[in-house]
């Protein structure tokens, strides 16, 4: 296929995908709002740094106002809170028989489907570690799960083609008929990552701290209870075992999963979550509302109590607005 794959958002996730696919010979065009980053990617190239692999790859890139043309395949890789605006902006460039694949965290497929239609929406779950370090550089910290699937569960030729394309980035990428099970699994793990960002400690230090294990277990249990109420059976990945956090599951299994998460994150150069970087490095608002806040909203609809998740949203907003610092005391404030 000579038509480029359009990647909307060339940050940690989109930039990593774009560099790898372009290096593999696939035509790629990236769109990003940071003009200096766009200029670097299309001239001297996007540098992928870190322990996985280091290389520099020139990738065609434009700012949104420079974009022209119609595309049949678009990967959306912006922060969750920008999904609706980005979907509106890319919609005029999406072919009538094309699709948008969400390479994001959260349930953004629901938002994308409202804008471009469910038949033009494809789901993806990504758990590799990467950070945008500045114009022209993304640090690829560790490999992680990559899963592709249609939101209605069917596997079509376009799904198989997109999965095949992404094998150039992640050879172990999975093609699934139940993408929601993976997305809900990531919501459980993701809620824990928001809790780690209440402190300045690394993800591993948080998960390995026995004094915090009970809180992480309780957070996981709240998310899994909502998933069960909605009829979803979440899938595990990279140390996160959703069954261990289901109502009635023994605490020993949940603690073992937390220990696995500590071990998994100890093997990455990405020591802190993207939430931490939003708060401490980039000084901007996080994805807490479209991720954890969405679970709280869906829990209320299902009649499932989620006091810890609601408190977690409040505390993240407190840090965003300067009312609290990232500290052990803020983490301790999670407990009722």
Write a compact overview of the structure shown.
This protein is α/β, with parallel strands linked by helices.
CATH class of the largest domain equals Alpha Beta
Helix content: 40-55%
Low-confidence segments:
none
Taking the alpha carbons of the first and last residues, their distance comes to 56 Å
CATH fold name of the largest domain, please? Rossmann fold
Main β sheet profile: 8 strands, mixed
Strand order of the largest sheet: 5-2-1-6-7-8-11-12
Total helical segments: 13
Radius of gyration: 19 Å
Task: Tell me the count of domains.
Answer: 2
Order of helices and strands: EHEHEEEEHEHEEEEHEHHHHHHHH
Protein name: 2-dehydropantoate 2-reductase
Pfam family, one: ApbA_C
EC number: 1.1.1.169
Function: Catalyzes the NADPH-dependent reduction of ketopantoate into pantoic acid.
């Amino acid at each position: 296929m000579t038509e480029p794959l359009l990647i909307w958002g060339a940050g940690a996730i989109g930039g990593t995908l774009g560099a790898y696919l372009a290096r593999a010979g696939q035509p790629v065009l990236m769109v990003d709002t940071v003009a200096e980053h766009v200029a670097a990617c299309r001239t001297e190239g996007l540098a992928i740094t870190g322990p996985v692999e280091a290389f520099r790859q020139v990738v065609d890139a434009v700012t949104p106002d420079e974009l022209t043309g119609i595309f049949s395949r678009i990967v959306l890789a912006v922060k969750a809170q920008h999904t609706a605006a980005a979907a509106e902006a890319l919609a005029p460039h999406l072919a009538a028989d094309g699709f948008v694949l969400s390479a994001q965290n959260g349930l953004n497929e629901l938002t994308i489907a409202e804008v471009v239609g469910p038949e033009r929406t494809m789901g993806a779950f990504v758990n590799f570690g990467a950070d945008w370090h500045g114009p022209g550089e993304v640090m690829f910290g560790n490999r992680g799960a990559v899963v592709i699937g249609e939101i209605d569960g069917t596997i079509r030729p376009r799904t198989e083609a997109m999965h095949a394309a992404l094998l150039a980035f992640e050879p172990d990428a999975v093609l699934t008929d139940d993408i929601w099970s993976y997305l809900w699994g990531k919501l459980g793990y993701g809620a824990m990552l928001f809790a780690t960002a209440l402190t300045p400690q690394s993800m591993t230090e948080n998960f390995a701290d026995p004094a915090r294990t009970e809180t992480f277990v309780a957070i996981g249990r709240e998310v899994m209870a909502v998933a069960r109420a909605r009829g979803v059976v979440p899938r595990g990945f990279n140390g996160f075992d959703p069954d261990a956090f289901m109502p009635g599951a023994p605490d020993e299994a949940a603690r073992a999963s937390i220990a696995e998460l500590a071990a998994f994150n100890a093997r990455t150069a990405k020591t802190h979550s993207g939430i931490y970087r939003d708060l401490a490095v980039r000084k901007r608002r996080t994805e807490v509302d479209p991720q954890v806040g969405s679970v709280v909203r869906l829990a209320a609809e299902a009649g499932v109590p989620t006091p810890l998740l609601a408190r977690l949203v409040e505390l993240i907003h407190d840090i965003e607005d300067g009312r609290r610092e990232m500290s052990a005391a803020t983490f301790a404030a999670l407990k009722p």
